[in-house]
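Appendix B. Chain record.
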Amino acid sequence: MSILDEEIVVRVDPKLDLTYFKLNYYNKREHQVPFNLTIKIEDLIKSSRLYINVKCDICGLEKRIQYLKYNENYNNCGVYACSPKCASFKNKLTCEEKYGDENYNNRSCLIYLL
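Structure tokens predicted for this chain:
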């Protein structure tokens, strides 16, 4: 996995109150909203704009990006690419996986699409 952080501190407000309560992170009797809470990265909501530390799966470069942007990038092929140069390599992997060839414009691949 390309996420380097294991936990993150989240500010729980009335919008997120029920989400983390259902995940058993706190007891409503002990806390009054808003407050800070440390949660696992896996339990962070997918649309979160909090910054996390990640590592490129292709070149190994470490970056700090928003969790939302990481999910958009990672969900395309299951690989995180940090730059356009790494993204071109990721595109070749995706084409190879989908069409059996890294160049989807090859004639033999187009027969299967029609």
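Further analysis of this model is presented in Appendix C.
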